[in-house]
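Aim 2 progress update. The chain analyzed this quarter is reproduced below.
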Amino acid sequence: MYTANFRYSRPKTLAEAEALFHAGVDAKYLAGGQTLIPTMKARLAAPSDLIDLSRLPGLSFMREESNALIIGAGTCHADVAASPVVKKAIPALADLAGGIGDTAVRHRGTLGGSVANNDPAADYPAALIALGATVKTTRRVILAEDFFTGMFATALEPSEIVTEVSFPTPSRAAYVKFRNPASRYAMVGVFVAKRTDGVRVAITGAGHSVFRVPEMEAALAKNFTPAAIAGIAISSDGLNGDLFGSAEYRAHLVTVMAKRAVAAALV
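Predicted structure tokens:
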């Protein structure tokens, strides 16, 4: 049964937040609330407790460290998009953040919230996978490859909180997406990153969770140009299909967007 009653808490420390989570019957963490609040308004979720992480100290920051860009989980998309630190280290990440949702969403939504939610059409997961990022939590450090486990599913334990994400700096990178005209979510988004150990191509929006395209990665490692992957088509099996586009259409878009991403990375 749906109920509008819940207990709202604003902890002062991460330890207090986790304790409040364990004390709740069906507790949920609230970061920017750009997914959870609409879900509650649509009566698709009715948590017993809302634990607001937005005022926790030390979760909003950006810094360069040992050939990596470290971003706090509480950093909003607008700050990532505008940051000189991000624009210098990984311009593609700033471009990605600047294309998320609309102005209101970008000023409320957070990196940690997006990563922990793992919406199949979200932008950040593609960046984490392509750049070989690591996710730091209140308990451990998790490789991006091991973090995203399925649609709206991650390796996080129920009370575990993302605290920061470390993005290794690539030599070249770009993110390009074909947007849903209403939500601005990615129908297909492609993040391409050229790294010291090769090339990674990560796809969001097309499948149930972010995934890589090994054939494109191998081709681009030999010849980092759009022409190198022009003839590579991926199967539509298992891809998303809805009123905005069929699985076959999304499969076609993967190649189109990947070519555009490579071209953007070469600029």
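The chain has a mean pLDDT of 96. Residues 247-265 form the longest helix (19 residues). These observations will guide the mutagenesis experiments scheduled for the next reporting period.
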